[in-house]
Design goal:
The structure holds 2 protein chains of 2 kinds. By secondary structure, chain A is mainly α. Chain A has helices at about 10-20, 20-30, 40-45, 50-55, 70-80, 90-110, 115-150, 155-185, 190-195, 195-250, 260-265, 285-290, 290-305, 310-315, 320-330, 335-345, 355-360, 370-380, and strands spanning about 60-65, 65-70, 385-395, 400-405. Chain A is elongated, with a radius of gyration of 53 Å. Chain B is an alpha+beta fold. Classes of the chains: A mainly alpha, B alpha+beta. The interface of A and B includes residues 155, 237 and 264 of A.
């Protein structure tokens, strides 16, 4: 690729990385975000178009349309160096195990002491690398499983990822066994005869780590199985729910050949599906003797004594005509005509019947129309006791005969 | 047989068709749950209530009553069961992990409502209302869960938050217990 300027000098590379450190930090921190746009990069005070172009030429970053990406080579290196890589790299362990085999072979074959030392150092470095990868892999596996279970929204993907982690776990166990066989069986002579103290320490640490890791991996396995079970039962539930709603929408749910819904519901005796019971219990006579009950009874009596409005009046809401009101009074108010008559004849005053009734103090308010009716009824019932004069008088345009008691 | 002193309270709650959940936000309900779970209380109460024709049943971290029973309008029972299936379906469509222990608020569902036509369709079918305000419709759905004691309101400072109770498993089991014939399953999948 001619458009890139390859860097072959480490010092130069470090310098370039240092110069572009602000942009590279931004890009690295946003590596998990979907996109990092050119505009966003230029917002940073230390980044300008020249820096971007320069880093692009050196193949440290890519420009993809309007977006910037850090070159995988560097991004992986940074992740590895900073320990932020969440990918479980089983292949790396495999590669390292074969490297150890190779270095031991070289170590055995070479006759030069200096070379022997070089290969011994390589073996030690490789063993340390395995130790580091195994402990990090277990840590990552644990975290990734939990994260996947809790945050992955898609059930199918969640299941696939969990199955993938289960596979990774098996591979890690396999590699640990391979390394152990290498140390304790295949290359036993090398590890026994080599007198280097550090190698011995590394070997012991590594084997101890394997014991611990084996325990952790058993725990991880339980966790994966539990999560997979939960995902499985959840997806079973979701698919059942989906099928049921379809049957409901198609009005086929009650069809016995499709589902046992009807049988199940008919047999269901749970209280939640039953009407709330009303217990028509009798009052306890003993409780009624208590002070509290007395207060309550008083309250009920008071409430009962409150006159309730006649229904018709409530209904008409004040829009009822005067004639209607009067008709109602005739209906409701039973005036004792005989009593009224007695009062009139015992009253030897000069008042005539009309004025007597007009001013009579009834127990309740009686409108004029009703009083007129009473006047007419009195005359017709008790005319023998009355003296009806020939004269007429007038009251509010009503002409009436003047009547006295005999 | 020594009955726990809370027997009356327990009866009062359960006989109304409510649940006693271990993860209730109400300390009194949690206390009732602990009392039933303690020692041989469950067996004692179960025997005791059985004499008055109530069966104390145990779910996963919740208790409820069943009753060998009398006149229940089958039509109503069917309607209620169908309604519950659709309600569960609505909330599970909103979030497939909607289950006991899940916390949510109206705004969460509302934001999904605007972008998800399936959710909009489901709520219209359930509430039989295509014109009402979305948040009111969603709240009416949540209220159904609260009324039948599957969800409780979580005291929060600003937003009204809800928590799904253990009793939600009752609804899930109700759904899981329905057997769909093999042919129908094949047809639908």
């Amino acid at each position: 690729m001619s458009k890139f300027t390859p860097i072959t000098d480490l010092k130069l590379l470090l310098n370039e990385l240092y110069k572009g450190r602000d942009l590279l930090t931004d890009l690295f921190e946003n590596r998990k975000a979907a996109r990092f746009s050119l505009e966003l990069a230029l917002k940073s005070a230390h980044t300008n178009e020249d820096t971007i172009e320069h880093l692009r030429k050196l193949n440290i970053i890519h420009i993809n349309g309007n977006y910037l990406e850090i070159n995988d080579l560097y991004s992986e290196f940074f992740e590895e160096a900073l320990g932020t890589n969440e990918e479980i790299n089983v292949e790396l362990i495999q590669k390292t195990v074969s490297e150890i085999k190779k270095y031991i072979l070289y170590h055995r074959e070479t006759t030069l002491v200096a070379e022997k030392l070089k290969y011994l150092n390589k073996v030690k470095a490789a063993l340390r690398k395995i130790q580091r990868i195994i402990s990090k892999s277990i840590e990552d596996l644990n975290r990734n499983i939990n994260n996947t279970f809790k945050t992955e929204p898609d059930f199918k993907v969640k299941k696939l990822k969990l199955e993938d982690y289960a596979q990774k776990r098996i591979e890690i166990i396999q590699l640990m066994e391979d390394t152990e066989t290498l140390i304790e069986k295949k290359e036993l002579i090398f590890f026994r005869t080599e007198t280097d103290i550090e190698l011995n320490h590394i070997k012991i640490d590594l084997l101890l780590l394997f014991r611990q890791a084996a325990n952790d991996l058993i725990h991880i396995n339980t966790q994966i199985l539990e999560y997979l079970n939960q995902v499985e039962s959840r997806s079973f539930f979701l698919s059942k729910l989906h099928q049921l709603t379809y049957l409901i929408e198609q009005h086929e749910i009650k069809n016995e050949s499709k589902s046992n819904f009807m049988t199940l519901i008919t047999q269901n005796q749970d209280i939640i599906h039953q009407p709330k019971p009303i217990y028509a219990l009798k009052l306890s006579l003993n409780q009624l003797q208590e002070d509290d009950a007395y207060k309550l009874i008083q309250q009920i009596v008071n409430n009962a004594n409150q006159p309730s409005l006649p229904k018709k009046q409530v209904k008409s809401g004040g829009g009822c005509s005067k004639a209607e009101q009067e008709a109602e009074f005739v209906e409701n108010e039973q005036v004792n005509l005989f009593e009224l008559h007695q009062n009139f004849i015992s009253n030897k005053s000069t008042t005539d019947l009309f004025n007597f009734i007009l001013n009579y103090n009834f127990t309740r308010l009686i409108p004029l129309g009703t009083r007129l009716t009473i006047y007419c009824q009195m005359i017709s019932f008790f005319n023998n006791d009355y003296r009806i004069e020939e004269r007429y008088s007038e009251y509010e345009n009503i002409e009436y005969a003047i009547v006295y008691s005999k | 047989m020594k009955l726990p002193i809370q027997t009356g309270e327990i009866f009062h709650r359960l006989s109304k068709g409510k649940f006693i959940c271990a993860n209730s936000l109400d300390p009194d309900v949690r206390k009732m749950y602990d009392v039933i779970s303690e020692g041989d209380h469950f067996e004692i109460l179960r025997t005791y209530f059985s004499h008055i024709y109530f069966d104390l049943e145990q779910g996963n971290q919740f208790y409820y009553f069943t009753r060998r029973e009398t006149k229940v309008n089958l039509e109503n029972k069917i309607k209620a069961a169908l309604k519950w299936i659709l309600i569960v379906d609505f909330f599970v469509t909103y979030d497939s992990s909607f289950s006991w222990g899940y916390c949510f608020n109206t705004e969460d569902i509302l934001s999904k409502y605007y972008i998800d036509s399936v959710l909009r369709h489901k709520i219209t079918v359930l509430t039989n209302d295509s014109e009402g305000k979305p948040n009111e419709k969603i709240e009416s759905m949540i209220q159904l869960l609260i009324d039948d004691n599957f969800v409780e309101v979580q005291p929060a400072e600003n937003v009204k938050k809800y928590k799904v109770l253990n009793s939600f498993e009752y609804l899930q089991n109700l759904i899981l217990n329905i057997h769909i014939s093999k042919e129908t399953q094949d047809e639908l999948s």
